[in-house]
């Protein structure tokens, strides 16, 4: 957890005087749905594998932000030239992931309210 906090603080310090809102876009369900409709967007579920298995957005890859190797895994799996759209259960973990990814040069959009907001808006999830 200490590494996560250190990484978060480092990501926040990437741009002096920048706020989290300037590092990544935090959007509602309808805007997020528009963002992920693009073929170029990499959709990332940052919840645990167990949460992902319970239901996730179609086409999402699972990279657990709670895993100490999150950044290593993300850097290995995600193309920095393509935008990322991240979500979690409520939007808190994905905001951390968005900060970390933005700190590494990714263009990131976060789903405010997470999959809870998504399902409350009666949007589709898939189970595998």
Automatic annotation (TrEMBL):
Signal peptide boundaries: 1-20
Superkingdom classification of source: Bacteria
TM annotation in the entry: none
Entry-linked InterPro entries: GlpE_sulfurtransferase, Rhodanese-like_dom, Rhodanese-like_dom_sf
Keywords, in A-Z order: Signal
Keyword S-adenosyl-L-methionine listed: no
The keyword Signal is annotated on this UniProt entry: yes
Domain Rhodanese: 37-127
Protein name in UniProt: Rhodanese-like protein
């Amino acid at each position: 957890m200490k590494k996560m906090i250190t990484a978060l603080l480092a990501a926040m310090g990437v741009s002096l005087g920048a706020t989290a809102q300037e590092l990544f876009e935090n959007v509602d369900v309808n805007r997020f749905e528009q963002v992920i409709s693009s073929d170029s967007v990499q959709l990332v579920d940052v919840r645990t594998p167990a949460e992902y298995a319970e239901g996730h957005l179609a086409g999402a890859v699972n990279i657990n932000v709670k895993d100490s190797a999150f950044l290593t895994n993300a850097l290995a799996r995600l193309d920095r030239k393509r935008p990322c759209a991240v979500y979690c259960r409520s939007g808190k973990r994905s905001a951390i992931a968005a900060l970390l990814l933005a700190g590494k040069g990714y263009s990131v959009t976060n789903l405010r309210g997470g999959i809870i907001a998504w399902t409350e808006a009666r949007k589709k999830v898939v189970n595998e």
